[in-house]
Amino acid sequence: MPKVAGVRFRRAGKIYYFDPGNLELNAGQDVIVETSRGLEFGEVVQQNKDVSDEEIVPPLRLVRRIATETDYKQLAANRQKEKEAMHICLEKIEKHRLEMKLVDVEYTFDHNKIIFYFTADGRVDFRELVKDLAAIFRTRIELRQIGVRDEAKMLGGLGPCGRGLCCATFLGDFGPVSIRMAKDQNLSLNPTKISGICGRLMCCLRYEVDHYEFSKGDFPSPGDLVITPHGDGKIISQNLIKKTVLVDLLETSRHEEFPIEEIEKLPPCEGRKME
Fold it and tell me: Which segments of the chain are extended strands (E)?
């Protein structure tokens, strides 16, 4: 089984496997690794471990070295250059009157390429912009269009809960989120209530989905006829967290909440007689 180390290049970014060679790497160490873009500066988040061949996406590239003082100085210099490149690119975007929003700029560690991340409503003809940037920086230029969720992940911020955005603090990948998840959790379907600052459905809607799907197996559904300590009734709604149901009592037309242990679902034949 090959030995690998997990390396991340951005906070809450995706984890990539690299060959540690003869290095004994531990989580928290900074390293220089070979990538398809050239040399890159990353952080070890998974120490050396053995994995199966199926878990590896070839080719498995090498960890060159543990970061040195010189590497840290170069990283700091790159960060300063990124700020300057951001300012220059914004001026060029305004000059060419392009309908695009510049989000971030990234220098590869070895200065082999500069990547400009941007958002836009549609396709953007940035050929003239690339020519201007290449003439100024004299290196390879890449303009990469990203989505609004990626923008939120890069920029960070506070969510409606008051905490740092999940995507910017610990989520490595975006999972699919659907309106069905909000419905299953009996949440308000008001877009302003269930959308994040990116304008898309909040990632946290999927955190409790498995619990709700598992719990629903023990619950009667809305509309089912049941026997309660206060008489027969019809289920109005469920509360899967409290493990209770709201029942419309047929004799008194009152609504009462009962733990599911205190109710019994009527067999289909009896239910038809009551209706």
Answer: 3-8, 15-18, 30-35, 38-50, 63-66, 101-107, 113-119, 140-145, 225-228, 231-239, 244-249, 255-259, 264-265
- Among residues 248, 174, 125, which one has the least CA distance to residue 14? 174
Give the residue among 57, 30, 29 at the shortest CA–CA distance from 41: 30
Contact 240, 212 (CB under 8 A): yes
Cα distance from N-terminal residue to C-terminal residue, the chain: 65
Listing DSSP states for 190-251 in one string gives -HHHHB-TTSSBPGGGGTTHHHHHHHGGGSPPTT-EEEETTEEEEEEEEETTTTEEEEEETT
CA dist., res. 268 & res. 229, Å (int): 20
Distance (Å, whole) CA 175 – CA 231: 45
Rounded Cα distance, 28 and 43, in Å: 6
Write the burial class of residue 174 (CB in 10 Å: 0-12 exposed, 13-18 middle, 19+ buried). middle
Could you report the per-residue pLDDT of 25-72, keeping only the tens digit for each?
Answer: 999 999 999 988 888 999 999 999 888 877 777 888 999 999 999 999
**R_g of the chain computed on alpha carbons:** 27
pTM: 0.78
Q: How far apart are CA 12 and CA 14, in angstroms?
A: 7
Identity of the amino acid at 131 = K
Q: Are β-strands 113-119 and 140-145 bridged in parallel, bridged antiparallel, or unpaired? A: parallel
What are the structure tokens assigned to 248, written together? 């419309």
